[in-house]
Amino acid sequence: MNAWIMLAAAGLLEIVWAVGLKYAHGFTRPLASAVTIAAMVVSMWLLAQAARTLPIGTAYAIWTGIGAVGAAVLGIMLFSESASVVRIGCIGLIVAGIVGLKLSSPA
């Protein structure tokens, strides 16, 4: 599988486990906890596989960026977190950073 596809999948799973932490309620809910832990393990494995080809600084930054943006957006949608102009602007800056890293990556 292509390293960029693995990295994107790893980032999507990071969103799953980040949001899953909220649903796991401190790992007191078994099903939500199991899904969260499984997403963590697979996300980290996919990141590790992608990092075999991609520069680690790029891979890690994009992985955390996808997770941060996804968790922030889902926090707004699912948990009624703030959607202020400043917050949305900052999320946009993270997206710009992710795109910039991808475009400037040699791999």
Report a brief summary of the structure.
The protein is an all-alpha fold and 107 residues long. It has helices spanning 3-24, 30-51, 56-79, 85-104. The longest helix is centred in the middle third of the chain and has 24 residues, at 56-79.
Describe the structure.
The chain is mainly α. It has helices at residues 3-24, 30-51, 56-79, 85-104. Helix 1 (3-24) runs antiparallel to helix 2, helix 1 packs parallel to helix 3 (56-79) and helix 3 (56-79) runs antiparallel to helix 4. The protein is flat, with a radius of gyration of 15 Å. The model has no long low-confidence stretch (mean pLDDT 95).
Helix/strand order, N-terminal first: HHHH
What does the radius of gyration come to?
15 Å
Q: State the distance separating the first and last CA atoms.
A: 14 Å
Overall average pLDDT: 95
- Low-pLDDT windows of residues: none
**Largest β-sheet summary:** none
β-strand number: 0
Secondary structure tally, helices: 4
Helix-strand makeup class: mainly alpha
